[in-house]
Amino acid sequence: MKFSQFPSNVRLRIICGFFDHAAGMSVMPFMVLYIADELGKVASGILLSLNVIFGLICGLCGGYFADRFSRKGQLVAGQLLFAVLIVMMTIFIHPAINQPWLVTLFFMLTAVSNAMIFPALEALIIDSTTEEMRKSVYVTTYWTNNLATAIGTAIGGLFYKDYRIFLFICIIIIMLINTVIFKRYLIDPTVNKVRKVVETHWVRDLLSSYRVALKDRRFVVFTTAMIFVFSAEFALTNYIGVHLHNTFKPIDLFGIHVDGVRMMSILLIENTLLVVSITFLVSKLTERRNQVYVLLLGTFLYTAGYGLAHYLTTWYLLVIVIFFATVGELMQTPIISVFQAKLMPEDKRASYIAFSSLGYSGAGLVASSGLIIGVVLNSMMMSIYVIIMGLIGMLLFYLAVHTHIFKQPIPE
């Protein structure tokens, strides 16, 4: 399906998301290094882990309110809040002021704005698409997000150290422009939907709403698998980034001086350039294969590649393992998104999306805790630990999408 045939909401989400994501990736991956340098590894690991838990709680609330009230209104408010928080971070990260605790506080509060934006926007996209077009939408969205990541990471790797204030200002401008565009042009398909009248306290109703998702055992197992699997990649800007920052011996690569920070940038750029260049090729090669087995093979390559990256410090070996990890990522990610959408009841999509964010939040928590665990374990033990987590995730994916042990039907 061509981009021009996508619904207007999807086109807006892809175009605006591209600029938003590129700007964010020029700064956000490097904030972990800033916090670790300023506050220490243990303190930063604890704070980032707490931030993941805080983000999860906010995400659950965001999904509930997106189902209860206007998804578009919540999205616009979240965009504005994020812009305000970036303004505050820009002020307190300025070298003349430099208050790392305040910067960390505002960085953690972005979890609130993200919790308002993500469930509402993703639910709007599912509302605006049919089942037949979703894989095309997910593949295209995934491709543009990774292109944005490549561009943003390249910009950040080159300019973050010397021009980070300028990069922060760019994020603010792009967020404000996107907010205006969403406010004016985004269509909310649920605006005329009859809202449920809630007679109990909203917290009790929120818990009741997520109790439905918790009883959906197939969906819970699927989400748990995501935690184990995605934690491997999320470690790239957590444990792996700090590990390279501390242990990678600087080299001159094709006339460019490469230290640990730039090596992390190179790996991120490699990942995203591969996604940009071979996404549709991998999708074409695997579309006629058994999707369950494609998912499992992709998961194995993905976790093995990122697991080995926890240990290696030789630049060309790192490039090789990230290549295989990226191929695995391309095999598994669209299939995960399609299965996930099929498992969501239509009237509770935002709540299910928010609950499924546990997969990403939990993975972020595991990846952040790697900074703490890495103080005790050496890099080889960390590598084995990550690979074992990935194998557990593979097993859970298989149980969730290919067995009859649950009452809920298997997605086609």
Automatic annotation (TrEMBL):
Pfam families: MFS_1
Keywords per UniProt: Cell membrane, Membrane, Transmembrane, Transmembrane helix, Transport
Protein's cellular compartments: Cell membrane
Protein name: MFS transporter
Organism: Macrococcus brunensis
Record lineage: Bacteria, Bacillati, Bacillota, Bacilli, Bacillales
InterPro entries for this protein: MFS, MFS_dom, MFS_trans_sf, MFS_Transporters
Topology within the bilayer: Multi-pass membrane protein
An example molecular function term from Gene Ontology annotations: transmembrane transporter activity
Superkingdom of the organism of origin: Bacteria
Membrane-spanning intervals of the chain: 12-36, 42-65, 77-97, 103-125, 137-159, 165-186, 219-240, 260-280, 292-309, 315-339, 351-376, 382-401
Coiled-coil annotated spans: none
